[in-house]
Amino acid sequence: MIIIRGGRPLSGRVEISGAKNAALPAIVASLLIPEPLVLKRVPRLLDVETQLALVEALGKQVERWGDVITIRGEAKIATAPREIVSRMRASFLCLGPLLARLGEAHVPLPGGCVIGARPVDLHLSGLERLGAKIQVDEGVVHARGKLHGGEVWLRYPSVGATEQLLLAGATIPTRVEIVNPAREPEVMDLGRLLASMGAEVEVLEDRIVIRGGGLHGTEHEVIPDRIEAGTYLLAGAITGGEVELMDVCPEHLTALIAELEGCGVAVRCGENAISVLARENWLGAEVETAPYPGFPTDLQPQLTAFLTLARGRSIIWERVFESRFGHVGELLRMGARITLQGQAIIVEGVEELRGTEVVATDIRAGAALVLAGLAARGETRVKGLEHLLRGYENVEEKLVGLGANAWLEETSAT
């Protein structure tokens, strides 16, 4: 667990790590080539280690030096281990690359955070449009066939489905058009990586076009983690502190910055830095999560924690995942006033939060509880630390570096 004695304004600089959600598909891209793929600025996280274990199980060799990872060798095995895929949804991205390289793929349905149904039907129907023959039997997706070019329309701009189709399309020498794709920075980063590997990638107004074949090894630096960056911005804001983020892309956080400024929080942006200077008695907000460039669902729990101490009423509509409210009950235990109404929550600001023992149910719920603990009176003990460590690198070191009184403590299994 992580233990926090709250009430200290955070101040100082924090360096943002590489984006977990960009590193995970980049690691899978190594399955497309036998030559070395060198990835830089890769965070040391549980999810990253899971993805590396997956490609190793499929025949690749992995070497790591600090935040640089080299992956080489042939993908020789068409069956992904259930014990790995069940841990994390992003591991399902190996389906298209394995099919393209080996002519068949057998991948269990994925696991991950319990924040909604998150079906993979768009992955499967998209691959079928490109020539895959797919059966699902006892929780395992079996794909066979030779892929070809074509147009795939996504009824929803799914990040995972877009990445799956980009990875598959990078192997197809004829034109693949993904209509209504996701446009998150992590998706664009995967496109840049595939282009560096030899694919032709073009981002148009309503579609992404990719033409593959002739892929080769390359080097690629992962973009900064905008969700980690947003979490530390909110940490500075909720504690009434002054925090500067280093090595970050401000343009990836325009939706959060707009909401903070609307609440009365001062935000300054440089070329590769963002700083936040909080004020007391910030205002509430009305927010609706949406695909990029809208407000990211991965920052909704953290924003909820921030708004528990706002002046007046806030309303947050969750439009991406139907079950992303695991943090609400725990915030209520800390003294928050939150009402759940369908896919919306109404937050009435309170004077203070009180430290207590709470449990994280997913990565971002854990981050929200840490933020609440930083601002709360007394001691907060956040259990379920394994969730937090899936998405935040060196969280104890970074918080302490900003002046937080926080530390990790092992808990017994019983």
For the record, what CATH class of the largest domain applies? Alpha Beta
The number of helical elements comes to 14
**First-to-last CA distance:** 14 Å
- The helix fraction, in percent, is 25-40%
Give the percentage of residues in beta strands.
15-25%
For the residues shown, what is the average pLDDT? 94
Number of strands: 23
CATH superfamily of the largest domain: Enolpyruvate transferase domain
Runs in which pLDDT lies below 50 for 5 or more consecutive residues are 112-117
Largest sheet: 4 strands, mixed
At CATH's second level, what is the architecture of the largest domain? Alpha-beta prism
Number of domain modules: 2
**Backbone shape:** elongated
Spatial strand arrangement across the major sheet = 21-22-1-23
Output the keywords.
414 residues, alpha+beta, UDP-n-acetylglucosamine1-carboxyvinyl-transferase, Chain, 2 domains, four-stranded mixed beta sheet, 23 strands, 32% helix, elongated
List the helices and strands and how they pair.
Layout: E1 2-5, E2 11-15, H1 20-29, E3 37-40, H2 46-57, E4 61-65, E5 68-72, H3 82-85, H4 95-102, E6 104-108, H5 121-129, E7 133-137, E8 140-144, E9 150-153, H6 159-169, E10 176-179, H7 185-196, E11 200-203, E12 207-211, E13 218-221, H8 226-238, E14 242-246, H9 254-262, E15 266-269, E16 273-277, E17 286-288, H10 300-307, E18 313-317, H11 326-333, E19 337-341, E20 344-348, E21 357-359, H12 363-375, E22 379-383, H13 385-391, H14 395-401, E23 405-408
Helix pairs in contact: 1-2, 1-7, 4-6, 5-6, 6-7, 8-10, 8-12, 10-12, 11-12, 12-13
